[in-house]
Amino acid sequence: MQSPTSRLVAGLAFTLLVISAYAFYSLRSVWRLRDTQTRIVDRNRQASTQLLRIQGELNTLGLTVREMLDEKPDYPLEAWQAPLRRVRENLDDALRREAELSAGMRAPQQSQYLAATLAEFWRAAAEAMEAARAGDRARALMLIRNSLQPGLASLHSVTARWLVDSNDEEARASEQVRALFSEIERNAYIFLALSLALIVLTSLGLIHSNRALFAQLGALAEQRSDLARQLIATQESTFRSISRDLHDEFGQILTALGALLRNARKHAPGSAFEEKTLEASTIVQRTLERIRSLSQSLQPVILEEQGLLAAVEWQLAGFERHTGIAVRYRGPREPVEVRASQAIHVFRILQESLNNVARHAQVGEVDVMLRVENARLILRVADQGTGLRENAPQGLGLAAMRERAGLIDGTLDIVSKGGGTVVTLSAPLALEEALVEP
Length: 438
What we know:
CATH topology of the largest domain: Methane Monooxygenase Hydroxylase, Chain G, domain 1
Number of domains: 2
Largest sheet: 5 strands, mixed
Helix content: over 70%
CATH architecture of the largest domain: Up-down Bundle
Low-confidence stretches: 432-438
């Protein structure tokens, strides 16, 4: 099965691309929104303010014109020239500001019409002031009635229409802002839906890939377990064959050789030959005992005949005798009959643990405990030696111990520190009849 890494990387790249595209779109929409709000809404609001200011100045101008038409002998017409000048200055300033803010927002003809109407108004006002100064009050009043008042009405009409247009433009700008907000919101929901869909599809792909990988790993683990069973079965078969050969062939040969040496010694009593044959018989006997011990280690008959507890005690006694390492053993209080299919693996794990102690621990004593607890068989081998080296590669012996523990549905824990190593096997008890310790 191909690794999902390439698909995951492609999915990540596509996700980042989508997020980047949406981020660019969102920023662009925000820029558009800000530009619309600044360029149209804010400018239009300021322009409307100036239009209101213009209308206020026109109202002031209207009041001034009405007062000029009132008959006030104590206040001549030419005296209104200064107030008109102030109103004109304020009105020109407001019109200039409004023109800057509304640039491009209305047709040039509208601005030209207002400028012409206003110019005609101020021309008529200048003529009226000139006639008043010349003492022609009738003509001045006629100009005010026939030119200034109609012009002022036209100016009011134009600015009122502009204010309405400005309000309409502001409403349109607000509608554009709302439309932009709606578009951003709608696209946010679309992006969220696409993101969720992408996450779901990616998750489903990961789940499918993981299930396929775990299925493959499970199949490999099953194959490895089957292979381990076959290898261990082959190993045990080989041990039995070698043990049988050692016991039946070499044992018989050495036994016969010992008998021949004893018979030969009888024919030459008290001679040097007898001494040599006695020495040879001793060597043969020691070799025979060693072969029998080796045969028992390869295939302990005591395990088959007397069970696990007797085999453990026999193994510990032999280990203590051959290595000189003292063994402190604590066994179960009650006899336990363990099935042979399980007992052989427990016995091999004990053998390998003791061999590791003898080879690596550099100690003079080892603790061994075998007990039954909660329907589980517990084997514990502990020493106070040098411990395993940190990050040291696992040897074949430890791997075989773990495989054997797995074959009996057990667990093998190896805890190694500077002050020693503790090997603990825990497996469900497979027995004909077991007494659990109180």
